[in-house]
Amino acid sequence: MTIDLIISRLKKQYPPGKFHSPDPFRVLITTVLSQRTRDEVTERASEKLFAKFDTPKALAQADSGDIEELIREVGFYRVKAPRVKEIARIISNDFKGNVPCDMETLLSLPGVGRKTANCVLVYGFGADAIAVDTHVHRISNRLGLVSTGTPEETELRLREVLPRKHWKHINELLVRFGQDICRPVGPRCMACPLIDLCPCEEKAKGKI
User: Fold this and answer.
1) Do 36 and 119 belong together in one domain?
2) Contact predicate 113/103, CB 8 Å
């Protein structure tokens, strides 16, 4: 099956490392910070933030100005600072410091949409879920796995066509593939391990 072959080749190209974090709270806050922000910027800001406020209670009690200063590099940091503080307060007060592990409850948190919730389920709890970010949405369409207009539609369609055993791996694989080879602009088609499976192969041959 083409999907199984795609996953097999990507796993060979990008061997999985340590799969999920022992700290779902860190996954949650980092994913909120990542919205409209480059990965490397998000990582730096997250490291700074958690070096000072490493628990829901500590972050909930932090001054918003201090949070802003620590995450200043990320996009919309003035909006995200009070948002992560409020998320921390809710988790600390309403969930006894434990991040909820179900989609419905995660979606009730401020600033948490399906992509963020699925990232928490996958990377925080190792659950079978499909986290669709811009890489997954773009590449799934580029490979012809789906034909969708939004990340939300892509998630729902992938749930139909992707075997469940691949769900929690698809995000990491396509993110790494998208950063390395299948870029939004100027994809490195001649270095692509999926060139023979990709409907965009004509690009590599200079036909379009």
Assistant:
1) yes
2) no
| 121-164 pLDDT per residue, tens | 999 999 999 999 999 999 999 999 999 999 999 999 999 999 99
Q: What span, in angstroms and rounded, lies between the C-alpha atoms of 154 and 132?
A: 7
In this predicted model, what pLDDT tens digit does every residue of 167-194 receive, in sequence order?
A: 999 999 999 999 999 999 999 999 999 9
206: left (phi over 0), alpha (psi -120 to 50) or beta: left
Segments forming the whole domain that contains residue 84:
24-125
Longest dimension (CA), the chain: 59
* Among candidate residues 113, 159, 170, 163, the one with its CA nearest the CA of residue 136: 170
Report pTM: 0.90
Cβ–Cβ under 8 Å, residues 62 and 22? no
* Structural domain count, the chain: 2
Rounded to an integer, what distance in angstroms lies between the CA atom of residue 58 and that of residue 196? 51
Q: Are residues 85 and 48 in the same domain?
A: yes
